[in-house]
Predict the 3D structure of the following.
Amino acid sequence: MYKLTEDQSKAALRAAGLPVPEGFACASPEQAAAAAERLGGQAVVKALIPTGRRGKAGAVKLVPTAADAAAAARALLGTEMLGHAVERVYVEGRFPIARELYLSFLLDGLPPQVVLSTAGGVDIEETHRTDPDAIIRDDIDPLVGFTETQACTLWARAGVKGAELGTLAEVSARLWRAFREADAVMMEINPLALDAQGRPGVVGAMMGVDENGLPRHPEWAEQADGSLIAAWRGFNEREKRIAEVNRKFKGGAIRYTELDGDIGLFVGGGGAGLLQHDMILALGGRPANHTDMNPGPGTGEKNKAVYLAILDNPNTTCLLVGFNYLQLAQCEQKVEPLLAALKERGVDPRDFPIVLRVLGPGEDAARAMVKDVPGITYLGPDSSLDDGVRLICEISRERKALKAGAAQ
Amino acid sequence: MSILIDERTRVLVQGITGGQGRRDTKHCLDYGTKVVCGVTPGKGGEEVHGLPVFNSVAEATQAHAVDCSLLFVPPLATKDAVLESLAAGVKLVVALAEFVPRHDTAIIAAAARKAGAIVVGCNTNGLISPGKCKVGGIGGDRPYDCYVPGRIGVVSRSGGMSAELARVLKFAGLGVTTSVSMGGDVIPGTPMLEYVKMFVADPETDGIVIFGEPGTRAEHDVAAFLRSGACTKPLVALLAGEFQEHYPKGVSFGHVAAMIESDTDTVSAKRRLLADSGALVAHSLGDIPRLMRDALG
């Protein structure tokens, strides 16, 4: 899931015809002041970071004048909040809230879910705990969508009456259409507000979109690249290089994430990579990284880039190249870029042992390539993924013992 | 016997004129699969490997009896292609494409259910009944390296692991009735449990192996089925991806996901649940034949 920032979410909803307060993304206090000026002075200034609970963290400030907007922006810009660097703020007009409601859609399985409540503007998890009956949940038929009829039924069940019912039903159905159009998998509108005249406003909006839908949304695609790998922290230099390679070659992206161990992993085929990583941990080994590879454009270059990153990671002492029995890809596609990377970095496998468990088409050619390279162990045709994992864990222990011996 | 496909299955290939379509169709034909025709809009009247190409599935199914559609169609075109086959009454559709948008997969799964059809995929390399038929790239052009006829039904969320599982079953002398790569997407066209039920009903399948991953409720449904007592055959489960639980969780985004999702769809939770429900839980490939042989006696 790629998390949109508030300006992106709201731009998408506005384009879908929803009533969204006017707002501007600003990178400086001066821009924030100008934005507040355009909004009539009174505004809300929020740190533009892709996360919730910003209010509690002090990332949202109500300001009465443009000068105050500049001051608020100055206080927020350049700080780190909730694990994200604040590079921009969102300056938004204040919606005159008379009533706060809650609406969300989730597509993390079948069927899609809608959650709504008249207890808006507050933490929905808290409401769930203290007053579960205030939360209405229902399934959505993906072949039909979330219709005004279904919305009307649910809002009525939540206790909404009169003209507000029709307004909310209309807005809710429109929000579903925007959710689907955006290829969103999560949307939370909190609060979904009504003013004193009963007019609706989408005041709080968060959306997460499906990476597989990004080809239909080029406006988000470039920024989304970065979120593929390390969403919980910034990239390090090697991860950035891989992100760069992913940008260069369209098609399946490589995922390369560094961890705290010493065993370099060049593993793939989705499930096989997961299994080998699990088994390493079970044997007491610690991977230095995880990888997941997709074939496609630039396979050779992508593979080499990952090998180079693994070799450049100072914590890595050895390498496991382990794939499920290949059915269409060729073994030499995994081995050739390894040799190129070793050569480019001048790494001798005698000092950096490598285990290959790469079987299937092209195996003979791949074996011939490494036949005379000491330090590389190419496991036999009958070997299993289990064997590769056991061997690399043994090697890792030996390397640690050697290092400890050298240090004494 | 086997499930879903055998030596009589007549296959239509959507997207037969593309590079992957041509190559993998050839591999299927070489294996003995009865591919009867292909479809590529605008290429009606052409031939691929001597097979007639039609402009639409409806046109093709008027000329040929078809049991199964195999799709070599790009991700953004996959939903419409699946719906086209379902509309033509095809009851088994194999959609290979990876990166199909999740909203599309939701529509595919709901449409399959409504039509009473099975959609294998998306994001799969297909399925194989060794010695009889293979549909998709599964096994490549050397299926016997891994897949040999035998007594075990396999359903895997990973296409690559399907080969690895078949290989340990081959070396153990157990072999495979049918191996289904059900697809790795969050919303598969057909849930894992449906395949498990088919294996339970198949007289030649003596035991079942499932391969699971983090996320989705697929394994929970299988566990509930086991607890109901309806699974009359030993079921070995290998689940991978527990290491992800050791990653920092990161700052949560929105609350609704956290509220609806729970900690029950982690690998370790699923393993516990399956074990408590009577599944034989493997922790390595080597465990699989050991557990299966013990159970089969």
The two ends of chain B are 21 Å apart (CA to CA). Chain B touches chain A through 69 residues (CB under 8 Å). Residues 250-261 of chain B have pLDDT under 50 and may be disordered.
